[in-house]
Design goal:
This protein has 315 residues and is α/β, with parallel strands linked by helices. The protein has a single domain, classed as 3-Layer(aba) Sandwich (Rossmann fold). Helix content is 45%, strand content 14%. The longest helix is centred in the middle third of the chain and has 24 residues. It is globular, with a radius of gyration of 18 Å. 46% of the residues are buried. The model has no long low-confidence stretch (mean pLDDT 94). Bound molecules: NADP nicotinamide-adenine-dinucleotide phosphate (NAP).
Length: 315
Amino acid sequence: MKYTAWLEQHIADLTNKTILITGANSGLGFYAAKQLAYRGGHILMACRNENASKKAQLAILKDVPHAKLTILPYDQSSFQSLNRFVQLIKASYPKIDILLLNAGIIMPNPKLKTPEGFPLTTGVNFFNVYYLLRELLGFLDQKNPEIRLVLVGSYSSYRARLKSIEGLLNSRLPRMTQYANSKLAIAMLHHVLQMNLNLFDFPVLEHVSAILVHPGIAATNIVRSLPKWLQWMINGLISMTSHSAESGALSLTYACGNAYVVNGSFIGPSGPGESFGFPKKLKLKPHFSQGSAKLTYAVGKYLEKIGGPVDVRSR
Ligand SMILES: NC(=O)c1ccc[n+]([C@@H]2O[C@H](COP(=O)([O-])OP(=O)(O)OC[C@H]3O[C@@H](n4cnc5c(N)ncnc54)[C@H](OP(=O)(O)O)[C@@H]3O)[C@@H](O)[C@H]2O)c1
């Protein structure tokens, strides 16, 4: 296993900490799970593919025999599957210290939609993350003295602009624009949560620190929807010019486990162009905050419209 000296120096002892990681079977989530397990955390690996998650579990145990790993079924593609996951957490895993919301996709077939009618990219990467937090965060906030919530953004959001919710609902936008918009919406949600702006459809949160992270550009399986030859070319190019999934995961691991990362922090790679390197604190971009309250309010209202009114007191 790589980076053990760095991990011992920069990541706190996580013994007795429970860490939920979505998409922990592949890429950045997999290596973050391994690195955080190395520091003693009990990792709840929330994954949609049972075989892939068991393989990932065995691979982590091979390198980190003391790893504490529990696989949980998790599908971020519909409200219905998220409801099942929320019920499981409420019934069996109420103590969670750190949430790493890492699962995400890029450039799927543009015709695909989630059951709720969202374009697949913005549905999986943003609306369903919002929905999961709406359903779960209030509960966790009541059950845990301190929660670190780590949201995974992307460098692509630097160039994106979101004037309204339409930029998240329009499936005719170029696929890369949909991805960048989904990640900008995550950065804007981070702003609202870290400012404790009290989203109208969330209960008041008292114990949540919200952290945003971007991993730079890392060679992972995220390009899986592209033809094989293109995946091979893209990952070859990334490996030569940027960094590996294992190195990219260090930013996620640092955001989850460094003792000096506080509410509102933005973490990413320190190398040229923020594309690779060891993690450091980055400056938040002005457009992550501009219009963020308006956007998240519109999202809350939209979800209320399609999913019925929300009783905040019940969560
Ligand atoms: N790689 C980069 O350069 C880069 C740059 C910026 C941001 N990011 C972000 O980093 C995060 C991790 O991506 P990665 O690069 O590590 O890609 P990856 O190797 O493809 O891993 C993505 C993970 O998300 C899971 N996932 C996707 N859709 C899901 C769903 N509907 N329900 C449950 N799990 C789902 C995948 O599960 P399956 O294996 O079952 O598909 C996989 O475990 C993403 O949010 C991505 O946007 C990556």
